[in-house]
Design a protein that fits this description.
Layout lengths: L2 H19 L8 H9 L3 E6 L3 E8 L2 E9 L8 H13 L6 E7 L3 H9 L3 E11 L5 E10 L5
Parallel strand pairs: 3-4
Antiparallel strand pairs: 1-2, 2-3, 4-6, 5-6
The structure holds coenzyme A (COA).
Coenzyme A binds next to helix 1, strand 3, helix 3 and helix 4.
């Protein structure tokens, strides 16, 4: 994709990311997002001006790098829709597992992932830093996909 288009997308994603996380420590700059999108193993799903997900595919494994929905569009099913669309995309690949990590205090994201069928398989102690400089564990989750293949 043309750099100019990727730059515009990166700016949009960075704004959604910043506004949804409300934590500058966790925010992704447009520069960083641009570098992700330039990587041939990385792709994205975008619900225009509402939300997006960036994910990587490495042979048989995919990883959700980030997912975010604009605050005013949250709790309307967009996050769930994006995860469903991700599986649809992966059904056309050889990928059979999706991994992600999520802060242990991110109740909404944990709820969304469990609802979408992700299972916890581990913890990374003190992985994130919150706004008050406290350390928060990362919960590692996975989902088997493409079972019918
Ligand atoms: C996590 C996130 C992507 C979910 O997106 P979303 O579009 O709001 O999610 P959905 O509307 O599909 O909701 C999924 C579930 O979470 C619940 N939920 C969503 N927002 C909620 C809220 N504000 N309060 C309570 N429950 C909420 C929904 O009710 C739904 O559960 P249900 O179907 O059992 O009712 C979004 O909240 C977000 O952008 N958060 C900030 C960024 C973030 O934390 N990303 C994940 C990092 S790992």
């Amino acid at each position: 994709m043309e750099d100019q288009i990727l730059k515009i997308l990166s700016e949009k994603f960075s704004t959604i990311h910043y506004k949804s996380f409300e934590n500058e420590k966790l925010s992704f700059s447009s520069r960083f997002i641009f570098s992700l999108l330039k990587n041939p193993n990385i792709s994205y799903i975008y619900k225009k001006n509402k939300g997006f997900c960036i994910f990587s595919i490495n042979k048989e494994e995919a990883e959700i790098i980030t997912i975010a929905v604009m605050p005013k569009y949250q709790n309307q099913g967009i996050g769930f829709l994006i995860l469903n669309q991700l599986e649809e995309v992966l059904s056309k690949s050889n990928c059979n597992k999706i991994f992600l990590d999520v802060a242990s205090n991110n109740i909404i994201a944990l709820h969304l992932y469990k609802k979408a069928g992700f299972k916890k398989f581990g913890t990374r102690k003190n992985y994130y830093t919150n706004l008050k400089d406290n350390k928060v564990d990362a919960i590692l989750m996975e989902k088997v996909v493409n079972l019918k293949k």
